[in-house]
Design a protein that fits this description.
The chain is built from 7 helices and 9 strands; from the N terminus they run αβββββααααβββαβα. By secondary structure, the protein is of the alpha/beta class. It has one domain: Aldehyde Dehydrogenase, Chain A, domain 1 (3-Layer(aba) Sandwich), CATH 3.40.605. The chain has a 3-stranded mixed beta sheet with strand order 1-5-4, covered by helices on one side. It has a two-stranded antiparallel ribbon with strand order 2-3. Helix 1 crosses helix 4 and helix 4 packs across helix 5.
């Protein structure tokens, strides 16, 4: 069963137990699906294209270090610089995109995260050792933080305000302007929320982002990247 067709079960960090048996059914199905995909090689994603580095590393599960979840690119300094250069090159077009369109794209990304939440949580559990409720809570918060940042833009009209003028000869306005490239280097302990939250705040405001997940959580980082890519 795809996540999109499943009943939505809201989980937060305050959820200590779930009375809904479907949660465990959905999660167990997602674990089986995740395990079936273990052992693949995943690329870097730079300038809209998949790319290989000079070397890879095996991501093993702390649950059982004999389990190789996947092989991920060991990016070089040049790879990092290329990612920043690509983000800089994308900045003029993205920053000039109307904020309403940026909000629409990021809302779609949040919806994709929600649709894929059980699979993402299953991977996260095996990647960092979170229990199922903690992993689901992290994934849900990722989507919620993206929506929160979108809400903030909408409630404040893109942060474009007419202010009280000093006199009838003055015009006073506060305008939020994009800054440039932001680098998001996320920690391993909240690999979803502390990646998607800051990245979406930068993106919705018209900045571009170079994203580096923790080396302990490259799989979660890749799944989040897929959601952003698929959203447009």
């Amino acid at each position: 069963m795809s996540d999109k067709k499943r009943k939505h079960i809201k989980i937060t960090y305050s959820t200590l137990a779930s009375p809904d048996p479907l949660l465990h059914e959905y999660y167990d199905e997602a674990v089986a699906k995740a395990k079936a995909n273990f052992g693949k090689t995943y690329p870097l994603f730079i300038n809209g294209e998949a790319r290989e580095a000079d070397a890879t590393f095996a991501k093993t599960s702390p649950v059982d270090t004999d389990i190789v979840m996947g092989y991920f690119q060991r990016g070089s300094e040049q790879d990092a610089m290329d990612a920043v250069d690509a983000a800089q090159a994308a900045f003029p077009a993205w920053s000039s995109t109307p904020w309403q369109e940026r909000v629409a794209i990021l809302r779609k990304a949040a919806d994709l995260i929600s649709e894929r939440s059980f699979y993402m949580a299953a991977v996260m559990s095996m990647e960092v050792g979170k229990n199922r409720l903690e992993a689901l809570g992290d994934v849900e918060e990722t989507a919620d933080l993206i929506r929160y940042n979108c809400d903030a833009m909408e409630k404040n009209n893109g942060f474009n305000f007419e202010l009280m003028p000093e006199s009838d000869k003055h015009h006073n306005r506060s305008v939020l302007k994009p800054y440039g490239v932001w680098v998001v280097i996320s920690p391993f302990n909240f690999p979803g929320a502390l990646s998607g939250g800051p990245a979406s705040a930068a993106l919705v405001a018209g900045n571009t982002v170079a994203f580096k997940p923790a080396s302990d959580t490259p799989f979660t980082g890749w799944l989040l990247t897929e959601c952003l890519r698929d959203a447009g």
